[in-house]
Amino acid sequence: MTMAAKTADGRIGRSLRIVRTLTIVLAAVILVSLIVRYMLILDRMMIYFPQRVIEATPDSVGLEYEDVYLTASDGTRIHGWHIPGHSGVTLLWFHGNAGNISHRLDNILMLHQRLGVGVFIVDYRGYGLSEGRPSEKGIYMDAEAAFDYLASDLGLNVERDVILLGRSLGAGVAVEMATRHRVRGVILESGFTSIREMADASGSPLPIPLVLTLFEARYDSISKIGRVESPVMVLHGDRDDTVPYWMAEKLYAAASEPKTLYPIRGANHNDTVYVGGERYFEALEEFISP
Predict the structure, then answer these.
(1) Residue 168 designated active-site
(2) What are the pLDDT digits (tens) for 92-141?
(3) Which residue in 168, 190, 194, 230 is the catalytic one?
(4) Known catalytic residue: 240?
(5) Which one of 123, 142, 161, 240 is the catalytic residue?
(6) Which residues of the chain have pLDDT under 50?
(7) Which residue in 87, 238, 269, 271 is the catalytic one?
(8) Which of 9, 110, 186, 241 has a Cα at 20 to 30 A from 120?
(9) pLDDT confidence of residue 27
(10) Is 230 known to be catalytic?
(11) Is-contact 142 71, C-beta < 8 A?
C-alpha cells in the first residue's frame, strides 16, 4: 500500500471515529431530553391536578380583595388574591395539588373571620389564571414572586408580619421557602415528608430508586425542615388516608424548636378545618399570637 493510500485510510478512520462519537453524543442528548420530558409529563399526570376555571371570587363570600398579577423570575405570569385583614398578620397561603385558589374560598373566609388575618394566596403556574405548566422548580419561583410582592408592594416586614400556610403539597413549598426566608411562623397542614416516602407509603409496586428516576418532583421536606429557623406548627388529621399521620410526627420530630404538633382527632385529609372546629382555630390563634 502506498503512503498516499495509508494517509487516506487514516483520514477516513479518523472521520469515522468522529462521526461515531458525535452519533453517540447526539443519541445521549436525545435520550436525556426524552427522559426529562417524560419525567415532567409524569409529574403532571400523577402529582399536579390543576383546574383553570375560577369558579368564584372573594367578593362572592363577602370579602374585599385585590386581583394580583406577578411575574416570576423566568417570566411566567401568575395570579393571586390579596384579602386584607386587621390583625397585622398576613398568611401567605400555598395550596394543595388540585383545583385552584377559588376552591379555598370557604377556608379563607373562616380564617379571615375567626382570626382577622390577611391572606395572600397565589395559583401556581398552570393553575387558575396563572400561565405555564407546574413543576417543583417553577412553583418555587412562583412562591418567591409572592414573597417579593409582600415585601416590596405591600411593604411588609416578612419576619414580623408573615406566616406561611402550606397545605398538603403546599406544605412542601412552605418548607422550601422557610429555608430561604425567616418569617413569623410556618404552618404545615396535612403535609407529607417527601415524594419518595409518599410513593413508599402508597405501596407503589415500583422500586423507590425507579420512582425517583421517573419523577422530577421531590418536595423533600423531611431533609429541609431542620434548617427552618422560624417557629413551626404541624397540623394533621389522625385519620388522613391520603397522607398518613406518621408523616406529621416525623416532620415535627425533625423540626427545630420552637415547634408545635396539633393532631386533629377524627379528621381526614380535606376536612381538617371542619372536624377541628373551635379548638382548631384556638390552636392557630395561639400559634399566630405574639
Answers:
(1) yes
(2) 999 999 999 999 999 999 999 999 999 999 999 999 999 999 999 999 99
(3) 168
(4) yes
(5) 240
(6) 5-6, 8, 25-45, 213
(7) 269
(8) 241
(9) 46
(10) no
(11) no
